[in-house]
Specification:
single chain, 426 residues, alpha+beta, Ubiquitin-like (UB roll), five-stranded mixed beta sheet
Length: 426
């Protein structure tokens, strides 16, 4: 890495440190963190709506929603069809519409439930009065009937909108992983987490990326936060210490980078816009907003990095463009779970073809059956598989004509295997 690039990254780390402290002050709460009560509550309520006392009500409502002859079922069918055929491309607007519609359907059931609905509610309440929560049951029903059928469409919108920023976050996280806790803004003298501790946190963060329901994502995220608190120890005494609010966001950024959770901003937006609004009022809302702030900071760091990197004279800029046209950005994925691991830059030789890159990747990744793998190109969120004899130089020439608006990267993967969300819509 050149001296100028090192200076740019030093500026980024300093900015990240200052910005994370300002964000922590903006959402400050006057207490120190301890074991999350929300975690225990979620574990106690896990699948309670499917238990014997509530199974009959839950099953009845699911059948009611899937019956196209009922008004409830017709409303759900029409909304799903209109959302899928809509020209709206903003995933955030679509998520807002989904959340609003789910709230309306819950209110409709409460206000216009038939006689059988009332009987099922009374029966479920009498069997389990301590665990009965009608709002929670209705929330899981509308998620099953509305959100799950629209998940693939929503993923497609998110993929096109956020895949360029995700690949850039990969690059920033690479540099954050090389930094100490103090360098990213953690004031307390904390020791770095061990590999075993990071593996436990990474497992929960991975489950966030593979879960469909926002409530499931929240459960695993809070479990990861709980593990962070559990493993936080003093660098001096080795004893467990509480985390102040000023240190939480920079510590979270460092942990997310170590665990390679590149979709941090997308996951936070998904939870913020689709979770039951009542959940966002307490601890859960605070930690979800903290995750969103961490993702926003990483994304802003990308913009600063790109602006700083282009702040050179015209001669240097033209040389950089000429050199970058001879390179491609390759996203390395985990062949087992399909999640992105890292991003690498591969220098192209003259007349390099797609099959040449496939041969190099198969050798480096120790692929046993390379004939089942292929090279995929993603430009501005749109992906396609490349022919073996396709010359990559022609792609780079077209992409480099408009460096500011286009983001191009490549993925080597098994042809018939889908990648994990949000890279799942190939």
């Amino acid at each position: 890495m050149g001296r100028r690039a090192v200076n740019v990254m030093e500026k980024i780390i300093r900015w990240l440190k200052e910005a994370s402290q300002k964000v922590a002050e903006a959402i400050y709460q006057p207490f120190k963190f301890s074991e999350l009560a929300t975690i225990k509550q979620l574990e106690e309520k896990r699948d309670y709506y499917k238990e014997n006392s509530n199974a009959s009500l839950y099953t009845y409502l699911i059948k009611l929603g899937r019956n196209k002859r009922t008004k409830f079922g017709k409303c759900i069918k029409n909304f799903i069809n209109s959302t899928k055929t809509s020209s709206e491309e903003s995933s955030i607007i679509v998520m807002e519409n989904i959340r609003q519609f789910m709230n309306e359907m819950k209110n409709y059931l409460i206000a216009n439930g038939d006689v059988k609905y009332d009987k099922e509610v009374i029966k479920a309440k009498s069997k389990g009065p301590k665990t009965f929560d009608l709002d929670e049951i209705l929330e899981n029903v509308v998620c099953e009937l509305v959100l799950i059928p629209l998940k693939e469409h929503l993923d497609d919108l998110i993929f096109r909108e956020f895949s360029p920023s995700v690949t850039l976050v990969m690059e920033v996280m690479y540099h954050v992983r090389e930094s100490s806790l103090h360098e990213v803004g953690v004031k307390a003298p904390l020791r770095p987490f061990s590999e075993e501790e990071l593996a436990i946190i990474r497992n929960d963060l991975y489950k966030i990326q593979t879960s469909d329901l926002p409530s499931e994502k929240l459960k695993y995220f809070l479990a990861a936060v709980s593990s962070i608190f559990k493993f936080t120890k003093s660098y001096i005494s080795g004893r467990k210490v509480d985390i102040c609010t000023d240190d939480f966001i920079p510590l979270l950024i460092w942990v997310l980078s170590q665990c390679r959770t590149f979709t941090v901003e997308v996951e936070a937006l998904y939870m913020c816009y689709l979770l039951n609004p009542s959940i966002m009022l307490g601890e859960s809302g605070y930690y979800t907003r903290s995750l969103l702030s961490a993702g926003a900071l990483l994304n802003e760091t990308n913009k600063i990095f790109r602006n700083s990197a282009t702040d050179v004279d015209s001669c240097q800029c033209s040389n950089r463009i000429e050199e970058s046209s001879k390179e491609i950005k390759m996203v390395i994925i985990d062949q087992l779970n399909g999640l992105p691991l890292n991003v690498k830059t591969i220098r192209l030789k003259p007349n390099t073809k797609a099959k040449d890159i496939c041969s190099v990747m198969a050798r480096k990744l120790h692929v046993k059956h390379p004939e089942f793998f292929g090279l995929f190109m993603v430009v501005d969120g749109k992906a396609k598989i490349l022919n073996d004899n396709f010359r990559l130089e022609t792609i780079q020439e077209s992409v480099q004509r408009d460096l500011r608006s286009k983001n191009c990267f490549f993925i080597y993967k098994e042809i018939n295997k889908k990648l994990a969300w949000p890279f799942s819509n190939y």
